[in-house]
Amino acid sequence: MASLRDRKRQLLTRLAELDNRLHDIEAELDTHQSKDWGELAVEREEDEVLEGMGASGLAEVKQINAALARIEDGSYGYCVRCGEEIAEERLDVLPATPFCRICAR
Questions:
Q1: 64 with 14: CB under 8 angstroms?
Q2: Nearest of 101, 60, 100, 103 to residue 76 by alpha carbon
Q3: Structural domain boundaries enclosing 58
Q4: Which of 7, 46, 67, 80 has CB atoms 3.0–4.6 Å from 98's, for a disulfide?
């Protein structure tokens, strides 16, 4: 069973990983300036993938920040919808989840 301190450390580590990844994505998006039309088309397709990854990363950052706020206010580990305790196994897999297994459906 992970302690609250372990969960917070896990969330902060993931937040740092996402921050690095989002900065890398931003840097990569800024480098695409090909003059060749064919290469530019490929770059635009790659940009769409990178933008999707960035949006996904930003959504995860928002979830992690919300989980960290729940840790601070003492409500972490309880479902925000029904108030029941979230299973430890679920938090092991999804430490930022705000929902129990039933409410997540």
A1: yes
A2: 100
A3: 4-76
A4: 80
